[in-house]
Structure formats: structure tokens, C-alpha cells
């Protein structure tokens, strides 16, 4: 009886070394870093309509993962080898937008979960580009924003920025270029929200 049970117990242990669930994580992950950060403070009581709620932008399928896309033609997309974001582009871009809006306007920002706490402006949108354009060897970030300032007044605007890739397209140069373009877009959005 024990001769039959031992192979059955050992089988899952042997198979565990052969099965892989997901891609191998690269040694380093990419993140966005804001050019300007809001200073630490002791907290404030928010006046009605002061806080801005910033939603996660929607994104096309090519941006619904942690990889860095490279447009290599009109209809072709590749991904930068060994380059991955720490989170989905829509999440890290939302966080960059929120930090930049607070730093540039002085208005606090709320997460989507806390948006019901305020009657202030609500920012949403869609990122349609957040990667590398191989033909121009540059990063490209495009954000179509929707802003509800008060009541039913809705404004829309497209923001875009490009930044050169220094050297060949790899995880380091792609990350730095996208970070620069994303910060440019975030600053444009913050200035628009703050006017």
C-alpha cells in the first residue's frame, strides 16, 4: 500500500518544479516619478469643492498589461524586452496626475474610492498612447481628458507629449523617455484643472 501512495505524494512535488504561472519578472521594474511633488503638511480641512477626484483612465488592450509597447508600424506593436511597469499604465499614470495636480495647484486630490466625499471637480479620461514610437525613436503619451468642474458642465481636451529616447530602445531608455513625456502631459493637465 505504501509503495502506491508514495509516488502519488511525490508527483505534485516533481511537477511543481516544471510548471510556470506567468512570465518571469525582470530584475528591475519601471515606475513614473513626478517632476514636482506636493510637500508634506499637517493636513487641511477641505472647503466644499476644493478637492479634485482623479479616476483611473481607461486604456486600449495594448496598455492593459505591465509591458512597454513599441509601435513599429501602422498596425504592428512589439514590446520592449525585459521592460515592465510596476503596475498597469493606467494606474501609475493616475497616481502621477494626482501628485502633479496637487503640487501645481495646491488642491488636494482624491482617489476614485474617496470621490464621493467631495463635490469638487472630477477628472477622468483615456490614455490612448503610452509607449515608444520606433519610427521617431521617441516616447509618446496621449491622454484624452474629461473634466466635470461643477454640476453638469463637462469639458474635454486632448493632451499629448513626446520625448526622445536616448540611444537604443531598451528598458532603461524607454522608461526614462516615457516618464518625461508623462510628466509633461501631467503638468499640462494640472494647469488646465487649476485654471
Automatic annotation (TrEMBL):
Signal peptide: none
Domain of life: Bacteria
One Pfam family recorded for the sequence: ABC_trans_aux
Record PROSITE patterns: PROKAR_LIPOPROTEIN
The ABC-type transport auxiliary lipoprotein component domain, residue ranges: 43-190
Protein name according to UniProt: Membrane integrity-associated transporter subunit PqiC
Organism encoding this protein: Sphingomonas chungangi
Amino acid at each position: 500500500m505504501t509503495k502506491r501512495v508514495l509516488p502519488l505524494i511525490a508527483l505534485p512535488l516533481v511537477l511543481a518544479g516544471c510548471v510556470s504561472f506567468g512570465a518571469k519578472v525582470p530584475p528591475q521594474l519601471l515606475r513614473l516619478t513626478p517632476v514636482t511633488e506636493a510637500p508634506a503638511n499637517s493636513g487641511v480641512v477641505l472647503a466644499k469643492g476644493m478637492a479634485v477626484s482623479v479616476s483611473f483612465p481607461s486604456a486600449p488592450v495594448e496598455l492593459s498589461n505591465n509591458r512597454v509597447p513599441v509601435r513599429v508600424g501602422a498596425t504592428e506593436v512589439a514590446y520592449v524586452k525585459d521592460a515592465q511597469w510596476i503596475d498597469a499604465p493606467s494606474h501609475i499614470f493616475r497616481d502621477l496626475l494626482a501628485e502633479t495636480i496637487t503640487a501645481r495647484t495646491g488642491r488636494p486630490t482624491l482617489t476614485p474610492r474617496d470621490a464621493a466625499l467631495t463635490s469638487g471637480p472630477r477628472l477622468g479620461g483615456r490614455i490612448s498612447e503610452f509607449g515608444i514610437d520606433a519610427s521617431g525613436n521617441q516616447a509618446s503619451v496621449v491622454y484624452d481628458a474629461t473634466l466635470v468642474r461643477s454640476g453638469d458642465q463637462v469639458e474635454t481636451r486632448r493632451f499629448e507629449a513626446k520625448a526622445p529616447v536616448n540611444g537604443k530602445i531598451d528598458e532603461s531608455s524607454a522608461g526614462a523617455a516615457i516618464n518625461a513625456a508623462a510628466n509633461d502631459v501631467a503638468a499640462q493637465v494640472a494647469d488646465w484643472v487649476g485654471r
